[in-house]
Amino acid sequence: MHKKLYFQFAGSCFLLLFVFLGYLVKFYPTWLVSFDETLTRIIRSGYPFWTPFFLWVTKFANPTTIILLFLAVLAVLVINKYYAEALWLSIGTIGIAGLFNPLIKLVFLRERPTLEHLVTESSFSFPSGHSTGSMVFYGTLLFLVPVFFKQPFWQWGLRILLGLLIGCIGISRIYVGVHFPSDVLGGFCVGLSWLLLTYPYYLQKRFVWRFTRKQL
């Protein structure tokens, strides 16, 4: 019960942070200029040395990549009868990353940075779709690592790798010039709020389904 409250409190905090950021983007965008310019300057200070790396890592959150990985993981989960895990992953990836994020962009209508774009993007900027998608998809996998690996060494190793991948994807969107840091932060907040608010319900559903299956 206490863990559920902790997750819900943390998820609510990230949701409120997203609402606050969205309010600034919509009505007081100049308030974010210093924050965005400072972080962008720091992240792009390694240009062009880091260009090959960030062009590579940003592809891990491209829609095609996420779709293919999602289908592969979903197939493994369904075949092994991890239905609660499959449902949680599907709702997040399809509903939040695939539908909600593109639609919420139309509320803010934020134009992308005027920096040179190293990749082609045509949609609006806030919140970052790659950041939301990576947080939702790879973040869900981070929580589901114990389903696939029982040894603590592999569990923590994979969690660290997934966490680093999510962070690098967010940084890559700033480096390649298609997002402001506040876009990335907004996308991460959307993904984190979803994960933390729904994780306790996934655990509850998993317990019920596995208990029912054992009874049958």
TrEMBL record:
The chain crosses the membrane at residues 5-25, 60-79, 86-108, 128-149, 156-178, 184-203. Keywords: Membrane, Transmembrane, Transmembrane helix. Residues 87-199 form the Phosphatidic acid phosphatase type 2/haloperoxidase domain. The keyword Phosphoprotein does not apply. This is Membrane-associated phospholipid phosphatase.
